[in-house]
Design a protein that fits this description.
Blueprint (H helix, E strand, L loop, with lengths): L4 E5 L6 E7 L7 E2 L4 H5 L19 E4 L4 E4 L2 E2 H7 L2 H10 L5 H12 L6 H5 L10 H15 L9 H27 L12 H10 L10 H14 L6 H10 L5 H12 L7 H12 L5 H9 L20 H16 L6 H14 L2 H5 L6 H11 L7 H22 L27
The structure holds acetyl coenzyme *A.
Length: 431
């Protein structure tokens, strides 16, 4: 409970409702609106959740003004430097960093859940080769609800744990199978002796007819990208997982809903859209003209990879990833990568332009992630899948937190109705 007190007063009748406020461990207090409808007969209205906390959570904290991102209290910069995606997944799920034995047990369990049921693999054949991989991933994850229906009791803690390990283990296999299907290449089985991201790269790039050695730099870069994308508190896809999951539906179905929500260009699809935009701009000389079109707010023209609902000074993930871009491109011998050069020029001009500065528009994580994915050989259509793969750890943590909360309620927003009032049906013959 906070020391602050608030009051909502209907100025026409003078009727007041006292509103309780709650303090988090850090961050703004929240004002509870419980009782407002009962006492005042009004709903509150906040489209886009601009000022509304949708739940209580202990997982991730963001301070958008200060550019802070903490997973379970640990700064993203420290995790990016010292941790791994799998350790971050453990941290997000369990709330603390694992001991050596705990990590070995977790990693061992993940590696023993990597294979897909053969019938599940056959489902890919139902997709045309040029189906978008996000559609395939969403559908295959949803179909896991059918495979693990009877064995999944959301009120059983052990079942929930198996679900968490299973989806984190299988999502790279699901993504790789979508990629291989699009290429028309045979599916490559997981290798449990490889670490999480190395195994993912192996499933993506190995072929049965020759050896494939995972480049440790590629695996490290991918692991870093995964850590940076692992969670971001109540973003659109995580809120979707929570909302779907709040009905008590099968968790694989809830995760599939999250994959679909992530796909949009305003969210995870931005990394794909950034590369599309850079390709369309084509050359550094075209940057000013493109920025003028953005500033004139031409329909559908946005500076993709810029702006964020929460970060209004800088995105801490963008800082880390920008540095990684230099490292990866340098080590891959492509530091003169024309796409990266174009991106840097675009960034430089936009950051000094009053239009973007006054609106607090800065590069977000996805301004750079696609450039690294491209350098690693991941095709553009798979970028958002990479994001989904990483964010699965966050979705799972939030779903687990929500289901274990005894105060959990089905998410059911209200609305401001502006449609017709009651009217009588007119038979077709009289219309
Ligand atoms: N390019 C140009 N103008 C922009 C951009 C942009 N990328 N983003 C916001 N603006 C402008 C808006 O036109 C608006 O200007 P106005 O006040 O003159 O009308 C102002 O900035 C505020 O924009 P909103 O759309 O109200 O900001 P909101 O917080 O709702 O949107 C969002 C955030 C969706 C991320 C937006 O900035 C955007 O579309 N960015 C491009 C897509 C993108 O990169 N998404 C990835 C987000 S990060 C992630 O999901 C991992």
């Amino acid at each position: 409970m906070s020391n602050k007190k608030f009051q909502l007063t209907d100025l026409s009748s003078g009727k007041s409702t006292e509103l309780e406020a709650f303090s988090g461990t850090v961050g703004p207090d929240v004002v509870s609106l419980a009782g407002v409808y009962k006492e005042q007969g009004v709903f509150t209205f906040d489209p886009g959740f601009m000022a509304t906390a949708s739940c209580e959570s202990h997982i991730t904290y963001i301070d958008g003004d200060a550019g802070v991102l903490l997973y379970r209290g640990y700064p993203i910069e420290q995790l990016a430097e010292h941790s791994s995606h799998l350790e971050v997944a453990y941290l997000l799920i369990n709330g603390q960093l694992p001991s050596k034995a705990e990590f070995e047990s977790f990693a061992g369990s993940i590696s023993r859940h990597t294979m897909l049921n053969q019938s599940l693999l056959k489902m890919y054949d139902g997709f045309h080769h040029n189906a978008h991989p996000m559609a395939m991933v969403s559908a295959i994850v949803a179909s896991m609800a059918a495979f693990y229906h009877d064995s999944m009791d959301i009120h059983d803690a052990r079942h929930r744990e198996i679900f968490a390990h299973r989806i984190i283990a299988k999502i790279p296999t699901i993504a790789a199978a979508a990629y291989k299907h699009a290429l028309g290449q045979p599916f490559i089985y997981p290798r449990n002796d490889l670490e999480y991201t190395a195994n993912m790269l192996h499933m993506f790039f190995a072929v049965p007819c020759e050896d494939y050695d995972v480049d440790p730099l590629h695996a490290k870069a991918m692991d870093l990208l995964f850590m940076l994308h692992a969670d971001h508190e109540q973003n659109a896809s995580t809120s979707t997982v929570r909302l779907a999951g709040s009905t008590g539906c099968n968790p694989y179905a809830a995760i599939s809903a999250g994959v679909s929500a992530l796909w949009g260009p305003a969210h995870g699809g931005a990394n794909e859209a950034v590369l599309q935009m850079l390709e369309r701009i084509g050359r550094v000389e075209n940057v000013p003209d493109f920025l003028n079109r953005v500033k004139n707010q031409e329909s559908g023209v946005r500076l993709m990879g810029f702006g964020h609902r929460v970060y209004k000074n800088f995105d801490p993930r963008a800082k880390i990833i920008r540095a990684m871009c230099h490292k990866v491109l340098g080590k891959l011998g492509s530091s003169d990568n024309p796409t990266f050069e174009l991106a840097l020029k675009l960034e430089e001009i936009a950051l000094s332009d009053d239009y973007f500065v006054s609106r607090k528009l800065y590069p977000n994580v996805d301004f750079y992630s696609g450039i690294i994915y491209s350098a690693l050989g991941i095709p553009r259509s798979m970028f958002t899948v990479m994001f989904a793969l990483a964010r699965t750890a966050g979705w799972v943590s939030h779903w687990l937190e929500m289901i274990a909360d005894p105060a959990m309620k089905i998410g059911r927003p209200r609305q401001l109705y502006r449609g017709p009032t009651q009217r009588d049906y007119v038979p077709l013959s009289e219309r």
